[in-house]
Amino acid sequence: MERAYLEGDATYNGLFFLGVRTTGIFCRPTCPARKPLPKNVEYFPTAREALVAGFRPCKRCRPLDADDQPPWVADLLAEVERDPAPRISDGDLKARGIDPATVRRYFLRHYGMTFQAFTRARRLSGAFHQIREGEPLDDAVFESGFDSHSGFHDAFVRTFGDTPGQSRNRDCVLLSWMRSPLGPLVAGATAEGVCLLEFSDRRMLEAQFATIRKRFAVPVVPGSNSHLETLRAELERYFAGTLREFTVPLVYPGTVFQLRVWEQLLTIPYGQTRSYQELAAGVGDPKAVRAVGRANGMNRIAIVIPCHRVINKSGDLGGYGGGLRRKQFLLDLERTSQKNGEPAA
Ligand SMILES: [Zn+2]
User: Fold this and answer.
1) Ligand 1 centroid to residue 45 C-alpha, Å
2) Which is catalytic among the residues 31, 58, 61, 307?
């Protein structure tokens, strides 16, 4: 299986699936995403087993999609991916004009479990966070919908590599996806604060995950905490033009020089811009324009640490990791909101 995966051998598609422990995602053998270290890969004979072990389906190779998939299946899968928490009952299905018996047959045939079992499996990743927050194990088992402690325990260990009890003493980086007018963002936070905010299509994202794992030396798992919820609310107000200063705590480990640059970025007021030269002067090293540009590009907390407010001396935009279209949008948003005299936050 490892050889077939490394070679991207399409003849093995459907014969096995693989889960990537560091991202919690499972894939087909031919997934085009960058291949993880072999020690972080787990193999499963069926998509069902990958799901039960707590892995989420990959958005690139879409391991749950079948060629003959009816549109209502795609809708249901998308709904569960958006938010696996709400229970979708037979009554809910009927209200949408979907026959529960058809749903049951389809999920059993394609994924080896009922629709209800499918959504239960998708809720597991949330349980990790709950346990770390110190909530009683009984509640976590109940919330994630597992019928027995041992079933929960086994699935948990296969996914996260240690037992629910041990996880209480470990930190982790929790990842959440957030919507924005500029496309989805991925945000990460530790117990101390937000450490990542990136456009989720950004090519650098995988490298950023790797840096985060290295810098924090903790697992990166899907989930949320109060910092991520604060960020979500603040971003909404920022994009509505009613928030000028973020208050969410930030964690941004880096070199001494990077820290000077990032802290300088945090002093650029809303709606204003600085040139790379001004930024270099601000960190007390007017000649280090290129190094300042590089540190600016290494900023891991887009928007909140406003690297988009740095432009070329000539007035043109310069570069932006999330793409120039987005940089222009953010600058226009801030200028327009300021002109309209929206209440400052
Ligand atoms: Zn994939």
Assistant:
1) 16
2) 307
Answering whether pTM is above 0.85, one says: no
Select the highest-mean-pLDDT range: 51-60, 122-131, 132-141, 331-340: 331-340
pLDDT at 67: 61
**Cα distance between residue 153 and residue 155, in whole Å:** 6
Ligand 1 center to 57 CA (angstroms): 7
Q: Please tell me the distance between residue 69's alpha carbon and the centre of ligand 1 in angstroms.
A: 18
Residue at 283: amino acid letter: V
Distance 17 CA to ligand 1 centre (A): 9
220 is written with which tokens? 């990166």
pLDDT for res 344? 47
Is 31 an active-site residue? no
Query: Rounded CA gap, 53 and 158, in Å?
Result: 6
Tens-digit pLDDT profile for residues 266-284: 999 999 999 999 999 999 9
Active-site residue, 195 included: no
240 Cα to the center of ligand 1, angstroms: 34
Question: Residue 132: pLDDT above 50?
Answer: no
Q: Is the pLDDT of residue 133 over 70?
A: no
How many angstroms separate the CA atoms of 303 and 264, rounded? 14
Residue of 27, 58, 172, 195 with catalytic role: 27
